[in-house]
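Quick start: what a row looks like.
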Amino acid sequence: MNRRRLLTWTALILAVPLLLAQAVPYGRDHANPPVTAEPEWDSPRTRELARRACFDCHSNETRWPWYSNIAPLSWQIQGHVDEGRQELNFSTFDRPQEEAEDAAEGLLSGEMPPWDYLLVHPEARLTASEKAELARGFRATFGGESEGRNGRHLDDECEES
C-alpha cells in the first residue's frame, strides 16, 4: 500500500467516528437558565473578577464558544458547566450554596479555574494580586475570618473562635 493511500484510509478511520459523534445530542443545549438571585457582592470588583474567571461554569450566564457545539468537546464542556453549576451557582443564590464557603480556597489552591479552561480562556487567568483580591472578595461576600454579607463562615475554625 502506498503512502498516499495509507494516509487516506487513516484520515477516514479518524473522521468517521468524529462525524458519528456529532449525532450524540449531549452538550448541545446551550440555553442558559434564568438568573434568579445573585450574591450580595462585597464590591463591583469582586463580581467583575468572578465574572472573568468563574461565571462560565458557575453561573447561568455561560458564554458558549463555537467549539462547544462540536463533539466530543461539547460533551466535556457541558460536563464542566453542569458540575460547576451543581457545586456553586452565582445565579441561583436564592437556594443554598454550600460550596460558596470554599470558593476562596479553591481559587488560591489553583484548583479553580481548571487548567483546561484556562488554555482557551486567557482572560480568566488572574494575576497573583487579582487572585488575592478575588479571594478577599469571596471571603467578604460569603464569610470568612469575620462573617460576610451573606452570613456564612469560610471555615469551621472561625466558628470555634
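That is the whole record. The helical segments are 3-21, 44-53, 55-58, 73-87, 103-108, 115-120, 128-142, 156-160. Residues 111 and 156 are 20 Å apart (CA to CA).
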